[in-house]
Amino acid sequence: MKKLKNEPLKSLVQRDIAHIWHPCTQMKMHENYPPFEIERANGSYLYLPNGQKVIDGISSWWCKSLGHSHPSIRKAVKKQMRKYEHVIAAGTTQKTLVKLSEKLCSLSPSLTRVFYSDGGSSAVEIAVKMALRYYSLSGKPEKKLLAAFENGYHGETALALSLGDCRLYSAPYSSLLADTIKISPLPYLNRVSAIEWEKMPGDKWNEIEKKINPSAAKLAAIVFEPILQGAGGMKIYSMDFLRRLRKWADKNDVLLIADEIMTGFHRTGPVFACNHAGIVPDLVCLSKGLTAGWGAMSAVLTGDKIYSAFYDDSIEKAFLHSSTYAGNALCASAALEALNIYEKEGIEEKVKNTGPLLLSLMDEISADSNALANVRGIGCVVAADIVNPQTGKSFPPERQTGFMFYQRAFRNGALLRNLGDTIYFIPPLNAAKKTLSKLAKIAKKTLLEAI
Ligand SMILES: Cc1ncc(COP(=O)(O)O)c(C=O)c1O
What we know:
The chain has 451 residues and is of the alpha/beta class. The chain folds into two domains: 12-66 and 347-450, Aspartate Aminotransferase, domain 1, CATH 3.90.1150.10; 72-344, Aspartate Aminotransferase, domain 2 (3-Layer(aba) Sandwich). It is built from 15 helices and 17 strands. The strands form four sheets. The chain has a seven-stranded mixed β-sheet with strand order 4-13-12-11-8-5-6, sandwiched between helices. A four-stranded mixed β-sheet has the order 1-2-3-16. A hairpin with a 5-residue loop joins strand 9 and strand 10 (235-237). Helix 5 (120-137) packs across helix 11 (304-310) and helix 14 (401-412) packs across helix 15. The termini are far apart. The relative contact order is 0.14. The structure holds pyridoxal-5'-phosphate (PLP).
């Protein structure tokens, strides 16, 4: 648009607010709390136009698992850019995508097939569609029901919202949502040193079994975030529960769909969170850490049992889900390099050291402020709930303590976006120890200001 004479120059933030409808945001809030302007990002840091450095304490919604601008991923993407950026994936192939698929399938011997798409929610929808169609193709059309866990989160598309259990996001769209069974009460715990980690309370399992047994014959699949639930409140549950669920699912011919979109690629330690329990799901959804946050790519891994049900002369039996950017070449080059780096840089070992450090840092903040409850952690994830130090109870929601913490933390030098009054650290898996100590110092100072 042509600038009129004497028209004042608008700031970037004003131009943003004039047009951009931001995700997961009440836009009116930007009247008082405008979006933060980021100029560039490197490693664990975001750089603002005034030169200030801000630690990305949540890996930009948990996807920048290797930090920003990792030099070898940049090199791999640049190399691919010289060849081509995207070609239709239906009916074509290319070396990087084949190598990536071989590598993904090497992570678990019984997961032999990869279906690509462009985001986490679509991966969840794909896995569910595969499960439902698998049963109709296998002569069990009555298997149509779906179950998921209390407090789960699987994305924002209609089916993903139906499986999730975050009312704030799903309630306004109830007319669109499918009925799903919600599995509860989950055997939550705060640390893997708890006795229940290895052995969940029997009465809780009995209660769960009682809930799912009557639907077993009609149940097609159970969708769940393994071990750690993210957007539902950073909650950890017993690995024994997944073991029991795997046995129950085998006995009742029900498929398990692990949504490893947040937990995959070492966020909780091992490459997949299901590995804590030594179980292999029937379908696995991956995204975020798959490209280390370099591009919109997701993948569903499954095995020959499901794949072969679709394998036929008839097009009608094929899995006809299409995403324009499936198998995108730039994303594939980033993902292949990210997978190499997880190995080359010994990320699993790193997490073994960083995890306990992060937990002890959050414990210290809790002891010094008296304003945190339920300090919990697994792998490179720690979380806690802000409480009133005088009463030990939660603050009233209208006080927006968590949100104020987030706003102040940014100004103090750390991006620590809240989940209600839950605060958490999900830094890049390769963040330096001194960066983590700095992150904790900023969090403590901010918490003392916010309570
Ligand atoms: C466990 C889980 N599943 C699904 C999603 C949805 O992924 P996307 O935002 O890429 O659609 C997320 C996103 O945070 C997630 O954490």
